[in-house]
Amino acid sequence: MKLCIPKPLKLEHEELHAELVTATKASGRTGEAATAVAKVLHEHFVKEEEFALPPLGLLPALARDEVDETAKSVLSMTDRLKSEMSEIAGGA
To answer: Per the domain annotation, does 68 fall within a domain?
Structure first.
């Protein structure tokens, strides 16, 4: 069982990234602000795609009670998410 980020979430991430890239190309203060936001959010997006969002790909199989032993690979991701949650959530 391969863990994949659910397609709607993947698409949303891609759209947000594309909009942010477009905003960084704006002139003046808007472009400068968007560039600053992009720098702050980059690591957040990387971590989400690396270990926060892939476990959600198990939900359809869980709902059908079709999870096999390979699903245990999600535990390292969820453990990491738990340990880094406050950092990913912006210190909240």
So the answer is: yes
Give the distance from CA 70 to its chain's centroid.
Answer: 21
pTM: 0.77
20 phi, psi to nearest 5 deg:
-65, -40
The answer to whether residue 1 is domain-embedded is: no
Nearest-angstrom CA–CA distance, 46 and 61: 25
pLDDT tens sequence for the chain (92 residues): 678 899 999 999 999 999 999 999 999 999 999 999 999 888 888 999 999 999 999 998 889 998 888 788 889 999 999 999 888 776 54
Token pair in block for residue 70:
């390979």
Residue span of the structural domain in which 78 resides: 7-88
Contact by Cβ (8 Å): 57, 5: yes
Q: How many CB atoms lie within 10 A of CB 7?
A: 9
- For the chain, the C-alpha Rg in angstroms (whole number) is 16
